[in-house]
Amino acid sequence: MTAIEVSHLSKRFGRTQALRDVRLSVAKGEMVALIGASGSGKSTLIRHLAGLEVGEGTQSRIEIFGRVAQAGGRLGPHAKELRGRVSVIFQQFNLVGRISVLTNVLVGNLGKISRWRGTFGLFNRGEKQAAEAALARVGIPKVAAQRASTLSGGQQQRAAIARTLVQRAEILLADEPIASLDPASARRVMDVLADVNARDGITVIVSLHQVEFARQYCPRTVAMRDGTVIYDGPSSALTNDFLAELYGAAADELVLADTGASHGAPHPAPPPAAALPERHGVLEPA
Questions:
Q1: Half-sphere exposure at residue 122, Cβ-oriented, CA atoms within 13 angstroms
Q2: What is the mean pLDDT of residues 256-264?
Q3: Of 56, 57, 130, 223, whose CB is crowded by the most CB atoms within 10 A?
Q4: Please, are residues 54 and 70 in contact by the beta-carbon 8 Å criterion?
């Protein structure tokens, strides 16, 4: 089953062509890395997949699980419902620092409970237990009562993922989730993302600035440059020499010397290229 289908997606901000005729298909349950140098269009694409931006042109279209999220520069009739099936985590964590970590995680229920309960923060015992279980799942069960502002960056990002689990999202979009973290914290966050993908079948698209994490955690990588998809295929093919062919001098931005081995649960090795859909491969830039 196809989770995400993007066709002819373009977007301009002033004189900047942020996206140019992007086409992308992601199957349910895939874990896909989205890489590219600064300004390549990664974050803009994620914002469109999340329904936070709409594309341009009559052919622009995004479908989520076969239903139209947006088309022709307008949100589709099912856009609100589809937003509940998609969760986004950002580099900035987006937690409310003055309230407890548990309450931040409980916010994942807001799309499923009545407005008055959400307004007054009235969560039932079952919802609180589910939030506590989600915190345990991401490895930070003891911080539930702490103010979110007291957590480290890596802990805050894992709390954001716990909120996604409470939301019961079917697609998780992670926009540079490890960009501001030290290598050890980055590995822990990537371990959690890989775990929820493998165990829960959640479709994960993670935007990364360091290609080494894509090689380690994501069987498939989509590479962008100047708003265009220039490669879509197995992460194992992304050698440093190949990156230099794709990006030239800008490839240096994407190569991290050594991220080390994962500290969490083992993640699956990338499948052989033959196991991936035939559509994958190098794409000529527009």
A1: 7
A2: 44
A3: 223
A4: yes
